[in-house]
Design goal:
The chain is mostly beta strands. The protein has a single domain (6-134), classed as Pnp Oxidase, Chain A (Roll). 9% of the residues lie in helices and 50% in strands. The protein is elongated.
Length: 135
């Protein structure tokens, strides 16, 4: 993958009309894919750790930070958090791929300085099996 502009990475949530809406105001975005291995090391492992392939728990986590805007996308985030409802989301990395699936908003923070804009950061965790499509 060649160098890409970070602003081209997109986090989208499905709105009530069924269309995916870009989450507004995000300045930073992060996608973390995790796989917790299952250790099956025993006395016959000759001192080397052995892991059981495909047996651990896998997760996809998305986080972002940005500026607060009074928009439909911000309303989607707030509603999803307060209702603790699972949302269909997409995370798009140009030149790499698209992760799509059910996510739960696990964190929502608001902050602001007296002489600056209101800021927020959010965290989402996969709530099912996400799909990956190479772009």
């Amino acid at each position: 993958m060649s160098a890409q502009s970070g602003s081209e990475m997109l986090l989208k949530m499905k709105a009530s009309d069924g269309a995916f809406t870009t989450v507004a105001g995000l300045r930073t975005k992060t996608l973390r894919l995790n796989a917790r291995p299952v250790d099956v090391t025993d006395t016959e492992s000759r001192g080397w750790k052995e892991l059981l392939p495909g047996a651990g728990i896998r997760t996809a986590e998305v986080s972002g930070a940005g500026v607060f805007r009074d928009s439909d996308a911000d309303g989607l985030i707030r509603t999803a958090f307060f209702e603790q409802s699972v949302q269909d989301c997409q995370f798009i990395i140009p030149g790499f791929g698209r992760i799509e699936g059910a996510f739960l908003v696990t964190g929502l923070n608001y902050a602001g300085a007296y002489n600056g804009e209101a800021q927020f950061d959010l965290s989402l965790a996969s709530a099912g099996v996400p799909s990956f499509v190479a772009l």
